[in-house]
Write a structure and sequence with these properties.
heterodimer, A: 397 residues, alpha/beta, D-Maltodextrin-Binding Protein, domain 2, six-stranded mixed beta sheet, three-stranded antiparallel beta sheet, 14% strand, B: 502 residues, mainly alpha, two-stranded antiparallel ribbon, 1% strand
């Protein structure tokens, strides 16, 4: 009957279109148009955001004089790269949902990196949450376009997952071509004064006092670092995992439900200054090789190691991974000159004054490392001595 | 304190704070109506704009947006049976049947007005709670959340309609479905069938869209009608819906309280608020027969709770930096950008800013509801368009909404799957709301149970607040039985007296 067939036809066409559209390309999460950046300190009135049309990319910021004086890129065919990127859209895929730390960094970078890439492509950011950035990483490694228009932002914790042979890892970390990291993590072990523990040594040994540490998901630094301290140093740490995030753990600390947690110095510095200054919270150790400038007397975790094996385990298990916590990379098959151009653009963005000023405003720490260096660190990490690797693999999650 | 209250109000009426609020409302309007574009995503996108703004302006913009999405999400739920936001799903259960009965105007009026009442209620609780906020939030630890989530389960009975057994099984199925994904404690994969996309579990939006929207579409298709199957009656106007909000003021007020409370206690989440409010609306009604078929109280409850929870959710966000809802988590980013540290300083040094939040919520909701009323008549007309023309658009909304939830095709598959399940449940007369409630509460129950046990072993069951909550739950379960026994006893007494006389 005519009515049914029209309705049925329309429905079929609609469903087919939807499926096709979804398969063709994922709907990008649009970043709203920002007007050309005003130079000078004049207080600009807040820009009126455009109505959220589909795929409104970030317009290219007018090249500032500083950017015009670009140093020549080493040994790549800049013209060919520029010809490729001109008029195209490059997307940064973030492995977490909108609004979190990874997402905020990526959106900031997206606003500035376009002008440093030859050809000045449009930059957009897309979220693909799942599995602690695993879903997005697998996608970019295997299925995403390999022409250099897709950048992946993922967690370095996945490198550890590859090391321990975790399920679901479908990539080989050294094969990614790295652009760099915007910041290096500096995790600290923080406890409440109310816990009664003033030094990490109080928890080690036969008379060690128990320390209850709150953690989020297995495999995250919140969990992996305290577990390493427990397994390697024999500290009496009881892990309580399953909290939704570090803010929930903080609330649990206020309530006395847990005694402490692990978090980054930059986060602690901005969000919990009051607790640290008043002595309500104490920092027991830092998981870094070098001392932290603002905390000169804070013992590094390595000082608690009693022998070389413990030192190695702690170094590989808790310190090295912090340098590649927040990774930006392109897939292995992307043409080398484009990968190198992106890497150079990343480095220039990290040095750009406007970018740094915005990062300062957003309280985002910038202590960047370049793509080559990151690549080397990851290879070194995965090539750690076999004995250490076995011990790390056997550590309970 | 009073001067901060007034100064907060005056700050809202400055330029550019006021125009920014209007812009935020406009954006939130669009976002709320379009399913899939959720409030949280829009917030995250707007955050970069906030860098250059002063605190009042920034929050005028953001709060304008948040307040609105909670209201406008109800519109698609009522009109099309498609949840505009994850938190508007409960409005579908009675709102959409009302539309089918030709009472779309009334349903929308009820949803909007109850949203306004809920928002104002939440805002004033925020203002009033400022002195007691910190001890209030600190009183709820993981054991208490576990007890509260269990308490929430008792509401399954209310959502089951006449057949309690089917409702219980449906709720149990929901609980099981909540287990799909990575085990939050040890990372073990449960029922993921090797699909990475299932690691985070079944998304609430795809499941709800599939379970509720698809059976509706199929029914429309099969019956070859428009969305509204009956002509509008006398009591169908928008104005009637507004009056209903105040006629049934008990439901509206109590559900506002429920929403605010759930917003205040961080860790329960917005999805819970709407279902508990709906369940309470059912429970507290003497005549339950029309629920699920277009009882206006089924719209008032979730409508009020949705908005009041945002006001409530600001409380722990300001006082502790612990977000009471997903939108608040992103708002926290705005706090940091503005250099504000959530904590005691927000309640002392920045008190007038805190009060400006209260006013912002109230004002943006009033404006939104006002604007909505202007366009409502035209929206209602859509429900009379021939099904053949409307179905493709709704289908598109459903699938786009599910896809946009997590940017993965797997969500669309989930929607299709639950579409089938929803159809089955409708034909076999199994209630669907308990399944959603189980799905929403399952993760909460498991996670908090695990944390509580790991931390305290079984002694967590003896904490005073936990015991109190359990007793309340017990009372709710036993109430009908007790009522029956009491009635029987007084009935037999009277019978005896009559018999004695007669």
């Amino acid at each position: 009957m005519p009515k049914t067939s029209i309705s049925g036809l329309l429905c079929t066409i609609t469903i087919a279109l939807v499926v096709l559209a979804a398969c063709a390309s994922a709907a990008p999460t649009p970043t709203p148009a920002k007007p050309v950046a005003t130079t000078g300190p004049a207080v600009a009135p807040a820009p009126a955001p455009t109505v959220l049309a589909v795929a409104t990319p970030v317009p290219k910021l007018a090249a500032t004089p500083a950017a015009a004086a670009k140093p020549a890129l080493p040994a790549i065919d800049e013209k060919a790269v520029a010809d490729f990127y001109r008029g195209k859209t490059v997307k940064i895929i973030v492995g977490t949902s909108a609004g979190g730390g990874y997402d905020t960094y990526s959106r900031l970078i997206a606003r500035f990196i376009g002008k440093f890439i030859p050809g000045n492509p449009n930059m957009i950011v897309e979220n693909m949450p799942g599995g602690g950035t695993l879903v997005a990483t697998n996608f970019v490694y295997k299925a995403a376009p390999k022409d250099g228009t897709v950048i992946i932002n993922f967690s370095g914790g996945l490198v550890n997952q590859q090391l321990v042979g975790a399920q679901g890892v479908e990539f080989d970390a050294p094969k990614f071509q790295y652009l760099g990291v915007p910041s290096v993590d500096q995790p600290l072990l923080v406890v409440t004064k109310a816990s009664g523990i003033a030094k990490l040594d109080d928890t080690i040994g036969p008379n060690g006092k128990q320390l209850v540490i709150g953690g989020t998901a297995p495999g995250s630094p919140q969990v992996a670092l305290p577990v390493a301290v427990r397994e390697v140093l024999g500290a009496k740490i009881k892990m309580v995992t399953g909290y939704d995030g570090t803010t929930q753990i903080r609330l649990a600390m206020e309530q006395g439900e847990v005694d402490g947690y692990v978090n980054n110095w930059t986060s602690l510095r901005s969000a919990n200054r009051a607790e640290l200054d008043s002595g309500k919270w104490l920092i027991l150790a830092r998981f870094t090789e070098e001392p932290i400038k603002d905390l000169p007397n804070l013992p590094g975790i390595l000082t608690f190691a009693k022998n070389d094996e413990q030192r190695q385990l702690l170094r590989f298990g808790t310190i090295s991974p912090n340098q590649f916590g927040r990774l930006y990379a392109v897939g292995p098959d992307v043409p080398k000159d484009r990968a190198m151009a992106l890497s150079a653009a990343f480095a220039k963005t990290m040095a750009d004054k406007e970018f740094l000023a915005e990062a300062e405003k957003a309280k985002l720490d910038i202590s960047a490392l370049g793509g080559d260096q990151i690549g080397k660190l990851i290879v070194e990490y995965l090539a750690m001595p076999a004995a250490i690797k076995t011990k790390l693999q056997q550590m309970p999650q | 304190m009073v001067e901060a209250f007034i100064s907060g109000l005056l700050q809202v009426f400055t330029i550019p704070a006021f125009p920014l609020m209007l812009i935020g409302i406009a954006v939130g309007f669009a976002v709320g109506i379009l399913p899939g574009l959720g409030g949280p995503v829009a917030l995250a996108l707007m955050l970069p704009f906030v860098f250059d703004m002063k605190p009042v302006e920034a929050f005028a913009f953001l709060l304008g947006m948040i307040s609105v999405t909670a209201t406008t999400g109800d519109i698609t739920s009522v009109l099309f049976g498609v949840p505009g936001e994850g938190t508007s799903a409960a409005t579908i259960v009675d709102g959409h049947p009302m539309t089918k009965n030709g009472e779309a105007g009334r349903a929308l009026g009820a949803a909007l007005m109850s949203s306004l009442v809920g928002a104002v209620f939440g805002a004033f609780v925020l203002a009033a709670a400022i002195p007691i906020v910190r001890p209030l939030v600190l009183a709820f630890g993981s054991p208490e959340f576990f007890a509260l989530a269990l308490l929430g389960l008792t509401f399954v009975a209310a959502l089951s309609g006449e057949n309690k057994l089917k409702g219980a099984v449906s709720g149990g199925l929901g609980l099981m479905l909540a287990m799909v994904g990575l085990d939050p404690q040890s990372g073990v994969q449960r029922y993921t069938f090797g699909q990475l996309s299932l690691w985070e579990g079944l998304g609430l939006v795809p499941v709800t869209a599939g379970l509720f929207a698809i059976p509706e579409i199929v029914e429309m298709w099969v019956k070859r009608t428009s969305i509204a199957e009956k002509a509008p009656g006398q009591l169908s106007g928008v104005w009637q819906g507004c009056k209903d909000t105040f006629i049934h003021w008990g439901v509206t007020l109590r559900c506002s309280m429920i929403g605010t409370f759930i917003g205040i206690v961080p860790g329960l989440g917005g999805a819970v608020a709407q279902w508990l409010a709906y369940a309470h609306a059912v429970q507290s009604a003497s005549d339950k027969s029309r629920f699920g078929h277009g009882d206006v109280r089924g719209v008032l409850g979730p409508g009020a709770a949705n908005n009041s929870k945002e006001g409530g959710a600001i409380i722990p966000t300001i006082a502790f930096g612990v977000p009471g809802s997903v939108s608040m988590a992103i708002l926290l980013g705005a706090f940091l950008i503005q250099g504000l540290v959530p904590g005691p300083s927000m309640l002392t040094t920045h008190l007038s800013l805190t009060f400006s939040f209260v006013w912002l919520i109230v004002l943006s909701n009033v404006i939104t509801v006002g604007v909505c009323f202007l366009v409502l008549k035209h929206l209602v007309k859509i429900t009379y368009v021939r099904g053949a023309l409307v179905i493709p658009a709704i289908l598109l909304m459903v699938f786009l909404g599910s896809y946009a939830d997590s940017n993965s095709l797997a969500a669309v598959v989930v929607t299709l799957l639950f579409g089938f399940i929803g159809l089955l449940m409708v034909y076999l007369d199994w209630p669907r709301p308990p399944l959603i409630l189980g799905l929403v509460l399952g993760t909460l129950i498991e996670k908090n149970l695990f944390i509580s046990y790991t931390r305290y072993e079984f002694s967590f069951l003896l904490r005073p607040m936990v015991v109190a909550i359990f007793l309340v739950g017990l009372a709710i379960i036993l109430a009908p039985t007790i009522r029956r026994v009491v009635l029987q006893r007084s009935g037999s007494k009277e019978g005896g007296i009559v018999a004695g006389r007669g």
